[in-house]
Amino acid sequence: MAHGSSEGVSNRVLGVLTLILVLVDAGLVVINSIMWTAYRAGDVTAAEVAPFMLFAGSAAVGAVVMLLAAIALFRDGLGHRLAEVAVVLAGVRVVAIPIAVVVVVVTVGMSSVSGPSDIFLIVLSVFEAVVELMVARVAAARTRRTFTA
């Protein structure tokens, strides 16, 4: 199946869908910034805001990764190196989330990750990071040039 043919979904369509993930991640950053504002105003504690900031930080990295993947898809074969960078960054993100959780527990305390909503945000961060790693890998595979003689 040729990537640019009518036999399957084109890279441009996948690029547009990937741009939707960029908007989702950007929206998550904006929504979580409300918690940061509440923290700065003294309305919530560091333990209460920590999981939201972890989620927002992860989403910010996700937005960059998905933007790179989308650009790579729009560039087809010329975007393969960009897609490879997206895969590396997405992989680092997946590994960094558990490390960030440990850092939060050590610096803020176990109470920052012990509530149901805290655990939900952490699990959601990991899930989203894994999904976006898969998207970046698809972008890398779809932009790989195949040379035939």
Provide a concise account of the structure shown.
78% of the residues lie in helices and 0% in strands.
Topology overview:
Elements: H1 11-40, H2 46-74, H3 80-108, H4 116-143
Helix pairs in contact: 1-2, 1-4, 2-3, 2-4, 3-4
Written account of the structure:
The chain is 78% helix and 0% strand. It has 149 residues and is an all-alpha fold. The chain has one domain (11-143). The chain crosses the membrane at residues 12-39, 51-74, 86-113, 119-140. Keywords: Membrane, Transmembrane, Transmembrane helix.
The count of domains is: 1
Strand-pairing-aware structural class: mainly alpha
User: Which strand-content bin applies to the residues?
Assistant: under 5%
Assembly status:
single chain
Tell the overall outline: elongated
- Tally of individual helices: 4
| Mean pLDDT across all amino acids | 90
- Report the strand count: 0
Element order, helices and strands? HHHH
Provide keyphrases for this structure.
149 residues; mainly alpha; elongated
